[in-house]
Structures are given as C-alpha cells and as structure tokens.
Automatic annotation (TrEMBL):
Keywords of this entry: 2Fe-2S, Dioxygenase, Iron, Iron-sulfur, Metal-binding, Oxidoreductase
Protein name: Phenylpropionate dioxygenase, large terminal subunit
Keyword Transit peptide among UniProt keywords: no
PANTHER family: 3-KETOSTEROID-9-ALPHA-MONOOXYGENASE, OXYGENASE COMPONENT, IRON-SULFUR DOMAIN CONTAINING PROTEIN
Lineage: superkingdom: Bacteria
GO molecular function, one term: metal ion binding
Domain Rieske intervals: 12-115
Origin organism lineage: Bacteria, Pseudomonadati, Pseudomonadota, Gammaproteobacteria, Pseudomonadales
Length: 327
C-alpha cells in the first residue's frame, strides 16, 4: 500500500500551537512520516513538505523574507504558493514550472495550526471555549511517546483504567464500576455522553471524592475533547483537549490543551503540574501496548462493555477506510 494514498492523509491534524511559530520563522515538524516545514511570513502560516525540489535540503533551515522562503543550500526562493521565483546562481533565468514545493493545507484558528497533507473533506474543528472570557486556556503538556496515535486517543476515551493508572486522582478506590453511557455518532466521529465516574480528585478544585460527568467528543481523526462537569451537569469546569500528531505509525506527539473556569482559585503552575502528572502516568502503559498498531479486526483483542467508545472509534476508522497505523 502506498502510504500517501491512504485516507489518513485526508484528515486534519493539530500540528502546532499558533504561538510556537513567530513571524518570519520556519520550523521542522513531522506528520504521518512526512517532514513538514511550518513557516510564517508577516502573519500567515503555511505548511509544506520540508524538502527542497532542487537537491532535497530541509527548507526549515532556510530564511523567511516577507512572504517568501529561501532554501538554505543554493538560495532558491519560493513564493507563498510554493513556486520558485528566483535562482541566485542564474539571476536572469525564469525558474522552471517544476521548481515547486509540495504544499499542504494549513488553517490557523483558535490558537491552533491545523494541517492536512491530502484533500480535506471539511474544515477543521472549532474550539468554542478558546477566547470565551469564562475560561482560561493553556497548553498543559507536550510530549513524544513511542505509541500509536490511535492507541493514545483510545486511552484518552477510556475510563476503566482510572483506578489502576491514576489511583490518587481520577480513580476512586474500590468503586471502579463503569456505568453504561450513550454514544451519539456523526460524520466526523462521535460523542460519548453521560459518562459518570466517582473520582478522588477530578481537578485541583475538587474537595474530596465526588461524582463527575464527562462528555467525550472525537473532533478529528486523532483529536478529542473531554468536557468535565459536576454531577448536576452544569457548564463544564474543565475542557480538556488531546491533540495527537501521528509522527509515524508507531510514534506520536501529544499536546494536552485545557480551558478551565477556576483560574482565580488556583495557580497556572499547579494546573499544569496536576494535568502533566496524570498524563505521565499513562505513558508507560501506552508504550507497553502490543501490537503497537491499532488492531481493527475484532478477533485480535477482547472487549468489555466499558469499551463502547473504543469500539466506536475502531468502527469510525474502518468506515473511513484508514490503513495507516492499523493492523
Ligand atoms: S537544495 Fe534547495 S536550492 Fe538547492
Ligand atoms: Fe489515563
């Protein structure tokens, strides 16, 4: 199978936060095994294959000037559309039509840079709480793990591990029973609603064990959002987003991004440390899972009723005919 023909390439990935990329900066990233240069002119950000069409040098080592990017090797200058406009070795010569960089779709919104290396079917998802004055939003963790991106998403959607992997916070001692929850499916994924669990300390504001109500939404192929509410189902106190970049089929970059409505009560450093330590507890489990790639054939793994979200996620990957990163 040619990886580039795979439907995973036609999806949006949250490759970087907007503030990682300053004006006139170029940086190297990786997505689905491809080297990607993200670069910004005066304002607009662009995502290209990080490989010069001349002799393959990394354009991310080059220099931005105005709305053009110059290769670090022989100085070819590419305009905003990726077309070469100048060969410094031949100033009077019109560059060839073929002297173009492979460009990707790149859309910046809600503080995020979304990239699709193939053909997207619809725009990337919005993050309505970012910019809402009721919440403070911040990146709480960024890390690279030797684990498959879909396995990471499944872990985020999974509640039955709380008592074992997060016993001091998200778990609740002996009461590890997972009540039935319901799924709403839509074209881009699904929402698991009315997920109820008792937690020792669901967030930094919680005073002792309490019941929390979760909604989990898959908003892109490897991005999910969790709304955490009190048992009364009022507005979410925490909106936790997990953006996973499949670096390749077996390694992932994770960014956890949080909007929370109790910024007056706790320090930003404490919020970061709390969420980071929970995520770090998941890492050894994620890196231990075999097969590394996500099995889509039901015969390969045995499920329990609490796995409804995971089963729905696998159905979704099958429906999209994703071949990258699965087995
Ligand atoms: S490799 Fe880029 S200009 Fe030669
Ligand atoms: Fe976890």
């Amino acid at each position: 199978m040619s990886a580039h023909a795979d439907n995973a390439f036609d999806q949006w990935y949250m490759l970087a936060m907007s503030d990682e990329l300053a004006p006139r900066q170029a940086r190297r990233y990786q997505l689905l095994g491809l080297p990607v240069v993200l670069w910004r002119g005066e304002h607009e950000a662009r995502a290209w294959l990080d490989q010069c069409p001349h002799r393959g040098a990394a354009l991310s080592l080059g220099a931005v000037s105005g709305e053009s990017l110059a290769c670090p090797y022989h100085g070819w200058q590419f305009d905003a559309a990726g077309r070469c406009r100048h060969y410094p070795a031949h100033p009077g010569r019109e560059p060839s039509e073929q002297a173009r960089v492979r460009t990707f779709h790149c859309l910046e919104q809600d503080g995020c840079l979304w990239v699709c290396p193939g053909t997207p079917r619809r725009p990337p998802p919005r993050l309505p709480e970012v910019g809402d004055p009721a919440y403070r939003s911040l990146l709480v963790c960024e890390t690279t793990v030797a684990a498959n991106a879909y396995r990471v998403i499944e872990n985020f959607l999974d509640m039955a591990h709380f008592g074992f992997v997060h016993p001091g916070t998200l778990g609740a001692g002996d009461d590890g029973e997972i009540a039935a929850y319901r799924l709403e499916t839509h074209d881009d994924g699904f929402i698991a609603r009315d997920c109820r669990v008792i937690q020792r300390q669901g967030n930094l504001q919680a005073q002792g064990p309490s019941e929390v109500l979760y909604d989990y939404a898959l908003i892109a192929l490897t991005s999910a959002v969790l709304h955490k509410k009190g048992a009364d189902g009022a507005r979410a106190s925490d909106v936790i987003r997990l953006f996973v970049v499949p670096l390749d089929e077996e390694r992932s970059q994770l960014r956890m991004h949080l909007s929370y409505d109790y910024a007056e009560a706790v320090s930003e450093a404490d919020v970061i440390a709390f969420n980071r330590s929970i995520l770090q507890e998941d890492v050894p489990i994620l890196e231990s899972q075999r097969p590394v790639r996500l099995p889509l054939h039901t015969a390969l793994e045995v499920s329990q009723p609490a796995d409804l979200s995971s089963i729905q996620y696998r159905r979704h990957l099958k429906r999209l005919q994703i071949g990258y990163g699965v087995c």
